[in-house]
TrEMBL record:
Cellular localization per UniProt: Membrane
Domain called DUF5935: residue spans: 1-193
O-antigen ligase-related domain sequence ranges: 208-356
GO cellular component: membrane
A GO molecular function held by the record: ligase activity
Protein name: O-glycosylation ligase, exosortase A system-associated
Organism: Rhizorhabdus wittichii
Key words of the record: Ligase, Membrane, Transmembrane, Transmembrane helix
Transmembrane segments: 43-64, 76-93, 105-122, 129-152, 172-191, 203-231, 243-260, 348-366, 395-416
Length: 487
């Protein structure tokens, strides 16, 4: 029954795509995030669904779409360079077979993020992609949130529709992306033009945001907790009544902590110190190995280079009575658990530089747009809030990726693609001088120019008065509403 529903939904989107080719782009977003071929028992799992929709999206754009905005932007050029460099490191990888297996889905994520901005040249298309992204995420988050409320969950044990703990269904990955999607959810609840803000639509969006907050609790990931803290701080910047906001957050936290599972609070307590915790100590050992590895392999070892690590793990810690307990462990082939070290180990310093440039430029450009249209009203009132939501989502990802290897997860590249399309749309259609921290404000420059022009130009001479004719003089002298005697 589930197979029939998944097939019916996918076929419906593809049929609608022949009428509106842009829907092929949305269909690929759905296939890449939800992975219906992994949920299906038999029918879809035997068909290359991702490749079919991938080709359909490109053909739909090539045959029946506007090509005027196909010129690549600087960030698209950086993504192209990153794609080419990853291809080179794959050919020279330390573990060729494993590297080709990862390259099989990484290249599609990068190519599609380069291609997607060419299709996002209207506001409704930008919001359409965001809507599909959030609805696809909701199919995972709502299931996880419901199971968490029912008392299920646990680190690596919360079943999110699939049995394997990988991709978007991996505990730390879904925790980071669920929290980074909350700013986008709050934007859609207030400004969406596709799903108009009503009491029912807002109720759904707020319920989805609550489900996303439950995901880190159900998966019991420390990454999710840190992302929640950052999301709360970033929303503090956007709110007008900050003291009221702080009070509400403090009240919710105080009231909610007693209801948290004991296993969750015990796991969160390990954030205070890494020693004595095998997971944290192992990550530090992997990061240290990566720094040493990059000295001898500055251009990276290709995908899955971590398979060559051999670790000595120090987990010495001090007990409550002051006794030092020395524990030393050994391990090998442990993954990076950090997107930045993942890029450094697999793609070397050039890959890490391209990776950071793509993300930091996006965050900076969203700040430029947010500040430029902060006080905008009317038709363009949505511009600054969307820029802030994209920026906050990106910043939360940057924090979450410090504790999980999600450098190439497609979800963040969809956010980057939306940023590029949105940035281009603002520059072309909204047309306003943008904020720049390295130059004077526009009104200050205009005031200085007007003052200098006023000093340079002499005052104009008064025009000579023209004499009035005799008839005009008599009309001017007579009373306007009749003579004095009323005749």
């Amino acid at each position: 029954m589930r197979d029939l529903f998944l097939i019916g939904f996918l076929v419906a989107i593809l049929l609608a795509g022949f009428r509106r080719p842009f829907l092929f782009v949305c269909a690929y977003v759905y296939v890449d995030i939800v992975s219906p071929q992994r949920i299906s028992y038999y029918l879809l799992s035997s068909v290359p669904v991702s490749l079919i929709v991938f080709i359909a999206a490109f053909l739909g754009w090539a045959i029946n779409d506007d090509k005027s905005l196909s010129k690549p932007t600087p960030r698209q050029v950086l993504l192209i360079l990153l794609l080419l460099y990853c291809g080179y490191t794959t050919l020279t990888a330390d573990y060729p077979d494993a590297a080709l297996e990862k390259w099989d889905w990484v290249w599609k994520a990068l190519v599609f993020s380069i291609f997607m901005p060419m299709t996002l040249y209207t506001r409704i298309r930008i919001e359409g992609v965001l809507l599909f992204m959030l609805l696809c995420l909701s199919s995972i988050a709502v299931v996880g949130g419901a199971k968490t409320l029912a008392g299920g969950g646990g680190y690596g044990t919360l079943n999110l529709m699939v049995a394997n703990n990988s991709g978007m269904y991996e505990s730390s990955t879904i925790s980071a992306f669920a929290i980074c999607s909350i700013p986008l959810i709050l934007y859609m609840a207030k400004y969406s033009t596709i799903v108009r803000p009503t009491i029912f639509s807002r109720l759904y969006w707020y319920a989805l945001a609550f489900a996303c907050l439950l995901i880190p609790i159900g998966t019991q990931t420390r990454t999710g907790l840190l992302c929640i803290v950052l999301a709360g701080v970033l929303e503090l910047r956007a709110t007008k009544r900050r003291f009221l906001y702080i009070g509400i957050i403090a009240a919710i936290a105080t009231a909610g902590i007693p209801f948290l599972p004991k296993t969750y609070t015990q796991r969160m307590d390990t954030i205070q110190g890494y020693k004595g915790d095998a997971s944290a100590s192992t990550r530090l050992a992997v990061w240290k190995w990566t720094l040493d590895y990059s000295k001898s392999h500055p251009f990276g070892g290709g995908f899955e280079a971590y398979r060559g690590n051999k670790l000595t793990i120090d987990m010495s810690y001090r007990t409550a009575d002051g006794t030092v307990v020395s524990v030393v462990g050994y391990d090998a082939g442990r993954s990076f658990h950090n997107a930045y070290f993942e890029m450094l180990g697999e793609q070397g310093y050039p890959g890490l530089a391209l990776f950071l440039a793509v993300h930091l430029i996006g965050i900076f450009r969203m700040e430029v747009i947010r500040r430029s249209y902060l006080k905008e009203q009317g038709a363009n009132a949505w511009v600054s809030p969307l820029a802030a939501a994209l920026q906050h989502a990106h910043l939360i990802y940057m924090l979450g990726s410090s504790f999980v290897g999600i450098a190439f997860q497609p979800y963040i590249y969809y956010i980057i693609a939306v940023e590029i399309g949105f940035d281009r749309y603002v520059q072309i259609h909204v047309k306003r001088r943008v904020w720049n921290p390295f130059r004077k404000r526009r009104r200050d420059v205009e005031a200085e120019e007007e003052a200098s022009e006023a000093e340079a130009l002499p005052e104009p001479e008064p025009e000579p008065e023209r004499p009035l004719s005799a008839a005009a003089e008599r009309r001017r002298a007579q009373p306007r509403w009749g003579n004095v005697n009323g005749k």
